[in-house]
């Protein structure tokens, strides 16, 4: 069972089951635990090859045992997401831990631009169980409805779930509107019905200044 201890530490109570977590994120445990590094984000050779081709990096460990294990990463804020057979799309750097039974993979989310032909990829988590995602500062959960599409700066994007269509818009960005942009960049647009998690800070993205 996943529970938050404060806003920056994840406590997982284990009774012989397993959990997958970001490699090196264990900060303490009690009881009897075994740790094993997984290849390709826990998806075996196929997942490792896919991630190598897409350039997405996610090193995962499996923790199995009885007791309580605590996880954290660079004092990031942690958010719990419950999955009921649906799919969570999350940036690999923002994924802290998942129930051992949840499946992880890689989803292609579009091209940055036809001229460069660079692709963007997102980690997927699907099944029944809990996932813990991280954000730089308290995450903001935004609702997308059919009549209310949402546009997000990719540097602030953390994750999304629900029946959403995602598209990329290149050219005009928030910063170029203010005269601060430089180089090709894009925005992420979501349409449909679902939830989008954003963080109150921006990471560097491969799309240039956004």
TrEMBL record:
Gene3D superfamilies according to UniProt: Mitochondrial biogenesis AIM24 (3.60.160.10)
Pfam families according to UniProt: AIM24 (PF01987)
Protein name from the UniProt record: AIM24 family protein
Species of the source: Streptomyces pratens
């Amino acid at each position: 069972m996943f529970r938050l201890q404060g806003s920056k530490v994840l406590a997982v109570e284990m009774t012989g089951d397993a959990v997958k977590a970001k490699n090196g994120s264990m900060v303490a445990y009690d009881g009897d635990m075994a740790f094993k590094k997984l290849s390709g984000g826990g998806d075996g050779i196929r997942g490792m090859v896919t991630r190598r081709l897409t350039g997405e990096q996610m090193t995962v460990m499996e923790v199995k045992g009885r007791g309580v294990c605590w996880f954290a990463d660079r004092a990031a804020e942690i958010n719990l997401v419950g999955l009921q057979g649906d799919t969570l799309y999350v940036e690999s750097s923002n994924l802290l831990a998942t129930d051992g039974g949840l499946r992880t993979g890689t989803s292609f989310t579009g091209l940055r631009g036809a001229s460069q032909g660079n692709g963007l990829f997102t980690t997927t988590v699907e099944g029944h169980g809990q996932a813990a995602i991280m954000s730089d500062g308290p995450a903001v959960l935004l609702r997308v409805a059919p009549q209310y599409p949402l546009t997000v700066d990719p540097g602030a994007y953390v994750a999304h779930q629900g029946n959403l269509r995602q598209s990329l818009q290149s050219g005009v960005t928030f910063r170029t509107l203010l005269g601060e942009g430089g180089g090709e960049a894009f925005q992420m647009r979501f349409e449909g019905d679902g939830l989008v998690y954003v963080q109150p800070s921006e990471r560097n993205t491969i799309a240039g200044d956004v």
